[in-house]
Amino acid sequence: MDIGSRDLELLPEAPSTAHDRSPLEPNPGEEHLFEVENNPFAFSPGQLTKLLDPKSLPALQALGGLSGLERGLRTNCRSGLSIDETLLSGTVSFQDATSGTPTGSHPPLPLPEQNNTHYVDRKRVFGEHKLPERKPKSFLKLAWIALQDPVLILLCVAAFVSLALGLYQTIGPLHGSSARVEWVEGATIVVVIMIIVVVGALTEWEKEKHFRKLNKKKEDRLVKVIRSGKPSSISVYDILVGDVLILEQGNVIPVDGVLVEGHAVSCDEASATGESDLVKKTTADAVLRAWSTGDANPDKLDPFLLSGTKVLDGFGTFLVTAVGPYSSHGRIMLALRAEPGMTPLQTKLNTLAASIAKLGVAAGLLLFAVLFSKFLVRLPNNSSLPVAKAHDFFKILISSMAIIVVAVPEGLPLAVTLTLFFATRKMTKESNLVRHLQSCETMGNVTTICSDKTGTLTENVMTVVGGTLGDGIVEVDHNPFSDPPTPGKTQVVWTSEPSTVLSPDFQELIRLSIAINTTAFESDDNKGGSAFVGTKTETALLDWARRCFAMRPLSVERANHGVVQLFPFDSRQKCMATVIRLRDGRYRLLVKGAPEVVLAHCNRVVKDPTTGITPIPLYPAGRDDISGTVARYASRSLRTLALAYRDFEIWPVNEDHQGQAEVSEVLGNLVWLGVVAIQDPVRKGVRAAVETCRRASVAVKMVTGDNVETAMAIAEECGILVEDGSGLVMEGPEFRRLTERLMRSIVSNLCVLARSSPEDKRLLVKALQSRGELVAVTGDGTNDAPALMAADVGFSMGITGTEVAKEASDIVLMDDNFSSILNALAWGRAINDSVKKFLQFQITVNITAMVLTFVSAVASAEERPVLNAVQLLWVNLIMDAFAALALATDPPTESLFDRAPEPRTAALIDLTMWKMIVGQSIYQLIVTLSWYLVGPQYLQYPQLEHQTLIFNVFVFMQIFTLFNSRRIDNKLNIFEGLHKNKLFMLMMTMMVVGQVTIIFIGGAAFGVTRLNGRQWAVSLLIGFLSILVGILIRMFPDSCIGAMINLIPIPARLRRNDSRAPAAVEL
Fold first, then answer.
1. Where is the Cation-transporting P-type ATPase N-terminal domain (predicted)?
2. pTM
């Protein structure tokens, strides 16, 4: 194929080789991208990435321009790749490709060898358009990661010690006649560890599986390419470097490349660069020609096409230069891949577990010291055999180790794992896909939510609901307002069907202003009809024109009125314009844009749209009326767009421009046609959700690109701005200019940030965090990734969000609804509460069991604790597995929103919880120790029956304490939401049935005997009194407890000042 026919004279004179290569030098750490073994092409992937990292015209020139790329990539810019290409023979050197010498002076490029596999070399060198899949961790790998938890390591040590001592007791030389079950304690801890590891690994595995499913919802799509000179459709995953892709209006560009041919191509690169301006694209040949002659500003010459951006206007073809991980979009996606760190809750729990272990070891050493001292005192008078003395010593060791085993919180990691597993499954059903587990617990203590407006607070469904046409004579109302017609007008035509009152000429002018002056286009939908594709505002206007002005298909309207020149939307001018040629030979400029901008360029207005198009001068009073109308619409949360026109006798107005005019030359002396009001309705339930956030002491701030008036109106409708006027409203540019100190001082009162950019959002997040706030942020675009990653919790949109935004986020809102954030807030608080409830219960049982074991072992002549190993096993099962299942699955309740978020540094166990833990422990110890030490003197029960009664009372106190632990505050309703937690009731039933079964048929295995009815009644009554004791404890003021604690000489490092509690101690 002949690729030497391209005019190479457009390139500047080739400089030296060293100069050519300088723009292509590798970045540090990327040298491997520039080295490819057996490369049949002139370029490496690294050299091609220099074209767009960042956009670089010197790099394009160094690669030989479009001709050099064509030769070096062994393709053809007109016919594309050959469909017969397989393996390539021969090579093309860098000098051959970039020298600018026609290929006819070189030996012809070798033809491809025939093989069964297509594009082998091309795929090997430049890769395929697929990101390398992140290898999913195997279940065993996830289990091993879960096993690295410090608490589980502590449990493993305890299991080893318990199992070793249990086996010694079971098979020891002086084992008694009771059941040989001492080893079961250690075996049970092993089982608990296995359950924790399996459930934790399963949670992570399911989370990853759900996220992979979400990404697969964006199904494979077809793109148009040119191969062997013919257009064809291929999968987006089959695009290769060297392909020539066809650009059409509305396309999302999947790969990087340079423009070969095109007409009026404009791209929206906001998703990749954050810049809202449309970027006009110029062919690579024209760019290098203009650049070499100095005829144009290089900053405004752009032949580069970025992956992930959208074509808003024009058509053409481009040469693919990078795919997959080498493309700009792919590199961003790979850079966002990171392993999540340890969650804040896990950090606190590890600290707590270490503290509990230290206390347990201290208690065990103290018990060993006391019992060993007694052993040494009796040793001179002990005439037993040496083996018996050794056995007595081991009994002391076993009793000491028992306290340590009892102290180890083996149920704690199980409770955390079950809580996260249960919560993430429920959150997925409520449209919150959790990507990072730590975000669940962090969300519970978020203090500020920075939300986008469009699509999150609103429905993102634009509809024209009204308008004022001409000199305010015609008021169009499709959604009646409470406002009266335009003030000052004595005769106003109020209509919902404008076609019935407007003149045919004016209707045609409105129809053309909407149908021709737009970048949207029409395509077939899935229902056999047609749908408009473009921005929401554009499609709303087109839908209105079709409904009210009998607009024909866009292709017909545009065919009947040829477009002479298009001025795309410019964020500085805040308008767009199109020039058409009329039948009488004149030219008409159609303008659409922000009312304040368009009105400033108007000096005339259509007098009466019902009679025709008759312009009259626009006087100051008329301007004020129009401005008042725009303000009235804005106060109703409506977006406004103005329409205007101007006729010209000749085009262009300046002959020096050779057929093209500058927009600044023609924006003036316009005729005002009217203003159209567009509504994006607020989502149902958003106002209630914002009020709930306020009740929960969570501030909601709106960040939007809309103007201040519309933003304020939407914020008031959502409840973000309150009537007392305390909320601050600012524009992005103004906010950006603030000093860092001033920014920190005002962000707390800032409610609305209008006309803002993604960088403004990131600055807002950082300013809030500098004040100690925990911030949640919503985002949907690629350019929102920095703000999403900077936030404590990032929410991306599951429907409208880009892949980059989802990858950068912690939670994906699968319905794009603000109300779903409230669900995440509720579950976050429920997770933290569930863990605290379990802690409150388990530490109570731990304290009681440790003290009871210590005192009874010391007081016993046989140095044997009141609860034997099997009974402690059952107690451990209650306070670990059963309690974890019962308390970890409590769903959120409305009362969760009645308190403020906890500070980041708040103690894991606060004063109110300590009050309950200590109070319940004192009650249980008074009952059990009194029964153990004093009871035999009064009750006269046989020893086995007496110990069975103590065991029964102890267990039922724990069962009723489980009800008390359902609240961690001072409110008395411990049964709130109980009917929603069926698992809690099931666990309670299993514990009661299990205890009754043990007492009736446990016998020798558990070291118990049957109890009579009176003894059962006493057990239940004392257990029930735990609830009454809990009520008394909650009624005791925290302030008194805090004052008492302040009198105790607690080290400063253990104190934690908390503005929401009188005092707290952190473990």
1. 121-162
2. 0.66
